[in-house]
Design a protein that fits this description.
Layout lengths: L4 E2 L2 E2 L3 E5 L1 E3 L9 H6 L1 H4 L5 H12 L4 E3 H13 L5 E5 L6 H11 L9
Parallel strand pairs: 3-6, 4-5
Antiparallel strand pairs: 1-2
């Protein structure tokens, strides 16, 4: 019996890869993906910011998605019996510079260094 057969039923495999996930959390700590998204504000240049730049170099942009969208995407995939394949869950694909511009425009109280 193969991995996708259980008795008479067949199991379809769906892969839902998610970009950096942001949004509200019930965790007692700040999730790593949120720390990476806000690395330019926190000044963590040699840690999380390098991860942000790596994503941009690898993909050409930084895939971002809100946690609510991730939950809805998982539910959508479970409710569609014909669903199969691989999907990227991303609501926006800004560059690191576009993220910096957005943060500066919406949060002028934070100074983001050019380097």
């Amino acid at each position: 019996m193969s991995y996708n057969e259980i008795g008479d039923a067949k199991l379809e495999v769906v892969t839902l890869a998610c970009g950096l996930v942001g949004g509200e959390t019930i965790l007692s700590h700040l999730p790593l993906s949120v720390q990476v998204i806000f690395a330019q504000i926190s000044g963590n240049i040699f840690g999380y910011y390098q991860g942000l730049k790596f994503l941009e170099e690898l993909l050409g942009s930084v895939p971002l998605v809100h946690i609510d969208d991730v939950c809805e995407a998982h539910i959508f995939c479970m409710e569609k019996p014909s669903m199969k394949g691989r999907f990227l869950c991303s609501a926006a694909d800004p560059t690191v510079k576009e993220i910096k511009t957005h943060l500066e425009e919406n949060h002028p109280e934070f100074m983001i260094e050019e380097k």
